[in-house]
Design goal:
With about 400 residues, this protein is an alpha/beta fold. Helix content is about 35%, strand content about 20%. α1 packs antiparallel against α2 (about 25-35), α5 crosses α6 (about 95-105) and α9 (about 215-225) runs parallel beside α11 (about 285-295). The two termini are about 25 Å apart.
């Protein structure tokens, strides 16, 4: 293969499949590029933070994990304070959120830490000396009992199909190997009628040349997630749009994005296995699939609204007044907190909660009134000027 990068295991695997079966759906190509055990992006790359390719909320500041812990406390109490209380984090990444949640659960009053059984799930190896349970898997384990399944920026990285309208007909974009090296897109008949059925169910009519994405994998994942616990909640944090906005003419080029070294790219076929590939989440279908799986809606708001309802402003005031810090350290920490609620960035992400055989009213963002603002442990923060790589 020509280009700046030497072919990786993921690159070779995609080529092997193409040689064996012909062009791949983009969903299969994306799955190989991101998740193939030998050289897939999430199997081999340090994706997050200043030395990675993008920031997620836990990397911006540990206050995110502190507030997730407060959210879990609310849900635990809504369930009657069961013990054990299983929290399953799907797509745990480098384990930062897991560590922050468990640490801050110990600080909160109310006894959550005694009941909390935290399980991090990811395809990667766990960090060294990880204190909680870590399961290497791409699936959500069925642990049963009462609890919460938590997924922060997971749906946007699920393999998805790409389609276009060509000659008035819905066509799917496939990935083929180029004779001179690299990969090329080719169009063909849709690989499954589910693509047209999804667009029809949403009332979407594409214009000629419109290119977009359809995530069929999220429905199966939501069904799997519903079976993971006997009762409790699903908590999703991600970025995206409702279907009417997602498929609006202003997005006729789609929402697919690539990140490498905190730089946005638009070519998913460059450096296969060495860059992140993601797309915005289409929340209308996610909500419908969750309800079809058996969940009930339990609230939705922006990340900024959610974090403010959980008390981020109180934590910010604590940091602003903390003694023993220099100006640079204080301003950097405040900056990391502000990134989390910036409506033009992470603060505009959506937070969705769903309930299974559990109270569905007043559980999302409900700050326990008897739980004071606990001291904020840790001072990790996002460096100035790093916003370009937030949230993939």
């Amino acid at each position: 293969m020509t280009g700046l990068f030497t072919p990786t295991g993921a690159d070779a695997e995609a080529r092997r499949r193409i040689a064996l079966r012909g062009p791949l759906t983009f969903a299969e190509f994306m799955e190989v590029a991101l998740y193939w055990p030998d050289g897939g992006y999430y199997a081999s790359r340090r994706s997050f933070g200043p030395l990675g390719d993008f920031y997620t909320a836990p990397l911006a500041h540990p206050v995110f994990g502190a507030l997730v812990a407060r959210q879990l406390l609310t849900m635990w109490r809504a369930l009657g304070s069961p013990a054990p209380f299983n929290v399953i984090e799907a797509g745990a990444g480098d384990g930062t959120l897991s560590l922050d949640v468990v640490e801050h659960a110990r600080i909160l009053e109310g006894g959550l830490t005694d009941a909390l059984e935290y399980t991090a799930v990811d395809l990667r190896e766990p960090p060294s000396d990880f204190p909680s349970r870590w399961i290497r898997s791409g699936s959500v384990p069925a642990l049963g009992g009462s609890g919460v399944v938590l997924a922060n920026e997971l749906l946007d990285a699920m393999p998805l199909h790409r389609v276009t309208l060509e000659g008035g007909q819905l066509r799917e974009l496939f990935v083929d190997a180029a004779p001179e090296g690299g990969f090329v897109e080719v169009t063909g008949e849709p690989s499954t009628p589910a693509l047209a059925e999804r667009l029809d169910s949403l009332g979407v009519t594409l214009s000629e040349g419109f290119r977009t994405e359809v995530n069929l994998a999220s429905a199966a994942w939501l069904t799997e997630t519903f079976a993971a616990i006997e009762r409790g909640y699903l908590l999703l944090v991600d970025y995206g749009h409702e279907a009417a906005v997602y498929y609006d003419e202003s997005r006729r080029a789609g929402t697919l994005r690539c990140y490498s070294g905190h730089t946005l790219g638009m070519n998913p076929y460059f450096g296969v296995g060495r860059q992140d590939i993601s797309a915005h989440v289409e929340f209308t279908s996610v909500r419908s699939a969750a309800i079809a799986a058996g969940f009930a809606e339990a609230g939705e708001m922006s990340q900024a609204e959610w974090l403010r309802s959980l008390g981020i402003d109180g934590y910010r005031a604590e940091v602003a007044e903390r003694s023993g810090w220099g100006r640079v350290e204080r301003m950097a920490n405040l900056h990391g907190m502000d990134v989390l609620v910036d409506s033009e960035g992470m603060g505009g992400f959506r937070v969705l909660a769903f309930a299974k055989d559990s109270p569905a009213v007043g559980v999302l963002g409900a700050n326990p009134p008897e739980s004071p603002s606990a001291p904020l442990a840790g001072t990790r923060h996002m460096p100035f000027g790093a916003e370009g790589g937030w949230g993939r």
